[in-house]
């Protein structure tokens, strides 16, 4: 049996390669934008950091899509499905490697932002200092320093859990569709597969909507109560839903999903 660690390392390396290609494009885009601003003569001291953080949003979005695509290909790839490991191990290693690759991307983006901030370190520190000066406690509002830090940490955790939940949901749609394809009159027909995908996506999104809507109510209560603790409750609720989705995904992977030689 292939160890879980070895399988995770192998999957992580492939995804890190995808991230590295994306980072090269990110660096080129940042440098070209800065050079263009210099050429135009309107580069301000804060622009390098603004450009870097702006491109980070695009990079994270593209990376999420590429990693999700890579995840789903592994589930129907002969080479990986024939690895001597359990379906639970393959699914868990795949999800963990995706998470590690996104953490790697996050660390690189922090480093890029620190380098950009270092170009005008004094102004950045002054801005941060002013932000904390205006965070003095006010009765009935969530703006003390500890609350702000707690809310920021909660939002980071929520973003991480939301990413895992989104990957699990995408896998649920893909694996459900792959399992149902075997029952189609013509499993190779693109029209039949397209209709099936639309139906499955609509059905799963409807079910998830019924489950996730209460989490939105938690956010609504958080805004009204000026409490950041409910961010953590939302993260926990999403994590539970992602766990249930993952259990269904493993069941489908073990009993119904066949490879497609990708």
Automatic annotation (TrEMBL):
Q: Which UniProt keywords apply?
A: Membrane, Transmembrane, Transmembrane helix
Transmembrane regions listed in the UniProt entry: 18-37, 49-68, 89-119, 148-170, 191-209, 229-253
Question: What is the designated name of this protein?
Answer: Uncharacterized protein
């Amino acid at each position: 049996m292939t160890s879980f660690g070895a399988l995770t390392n192998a999957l992580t390396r492939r995804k890190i390669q995808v991230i590295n290609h994306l980072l090269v494009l990110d660096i080129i885009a940042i440098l070209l934008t800065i050079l263009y601003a210099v050429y135009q003569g309107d580069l301000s001291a804060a622009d390098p950091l603004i450009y870097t953080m702006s491109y980070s949003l695009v990079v994270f979005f593209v990376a999420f899509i590429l990693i999700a695509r890579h995840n789903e290909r592994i589930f129907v790839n002969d080479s990986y499905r024939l690895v001597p490991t359990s379906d639970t191990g393959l699914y868990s290693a795949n999800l963990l490697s995706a998470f590690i690759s996104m953490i790697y991307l996050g660390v690189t983006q922090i480093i890029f932002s620190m380098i950009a901030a270092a170009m005008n370190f004094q102004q950045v520190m002054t801005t941060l200092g002013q932000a904390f000066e205006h965070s003095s406690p006010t009765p009935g509002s969530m703006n003390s320093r500890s609350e702000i830090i707690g809310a920021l940490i909660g939002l980071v955790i929520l973003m991480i859990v939301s990413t895992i939940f989104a990957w699990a949901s995408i896998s649920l749609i893909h694996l459900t569709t792959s399992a149902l394809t075997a029952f189609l009159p013509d499993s190779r027909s693109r029209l039949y597969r397209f209709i099936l995908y639309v139906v499955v996506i609509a059905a799963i999104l409807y079910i998830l909507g019924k489950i996730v809507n209460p989490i939105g109510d938690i956010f609504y209560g958080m805004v009204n109560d000026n409490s950041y603790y409910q961010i953590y409750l939302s993260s926990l609720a999403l994590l539970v839903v992602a766990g249930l989705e993952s259990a269904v995904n493993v069941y489908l992977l073990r009993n119904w999903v066949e490879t497609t030689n990708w």
